[in-house]
Amino acid sequence: MAVLSLPLSFTNSFWSQDYRRGLEVLYRKLEQGVAENQEIVDFIRARSLAEAQLAGSLINPPTSRRGT
């Protein structure tokens, strides 16, 4: 069980007795955040492209040739 030291601070709440493990956790979380951010950027770009295509189709709707 971890030793609890009050008052709580970043140093005594985050770092383990071996700093390596704390750094590994921090690095994994940073990598996870980078991957999540890239997913968001990709989604926004795809959505932007879809919205632009929809806007383009509404500006120039296809003409119908009924009754000719």
UniProtKB/TrEMBL annotation:
One protein family per Pfam: FCH
Residue ranges occupied by any FCH domain in the UniProt entry: 22-58
SUPFAM superfamilies noted in UniProt: BAR/IMD domain-like (SSF103657)
Protein's name according to its UniProt entry: FCH domain-containing protein
